[in-house]
Specification:
With about 110 residues, the chain is of the alpha+beta class. The chain has two domains: about 55 residues, no CATH class; about 50 residues, no CATH class. Helix content is about 35%, strand content about 20%. A hairpin with a 2-residue loop joins strand 1 and strand 2.
């Protein structure tokens, strides 16, 4: 991520991240949608949320929306879909949970 924005790792962490419960987390800012990552762009394309570091995003971002709290129930999934402008949610083919789980196991941890 640091390389994607042209910074060394120490400078990137100092400017764009903080430690929460012993783990690094990207900084956020309050928007009308709640707290957004500082790299989430909602202004370039109104109605869309675009990651400015998409190719270098961390695993937490790569696995959205398949977070445990969104997968608890169909209602939880619908709430996440309705409140987060993720174009992939609710469109395209249904992927079996086993295939998603297998793919997540293959994804290297950050």
């Amino acid at each position: 991520m640091a390389e994607a924005v042209g910074l060394d790792e120490a400078t990137f962490r100092r400017r764009h991240a903080r430690v929460i419960d012993g783990r690094w987390s990207l900084n956020e800012h309050l928007t009308e949608h709640g707290y957004d990552c500082v790299f989430l762009d909602r202004e370039s394309r109104p109605g869309a949320a675009i990651c400015r570091l998409y190719g270098a995003r961390p695993q937490q971002c790569r696995t959205w929306p398949f977070w445990p709290e969104n997968m608890e129930s169909p209602e939880a999934w619908e709430t996440a879909r309705a409140t987060t402008p993720c174009p992939g949610m609710g469109s395209g083919p249904i992927i079996p949970v086993e295939r998603i789980t297998e793919q997540l196991r293959k994804t290297p941890m950050d």
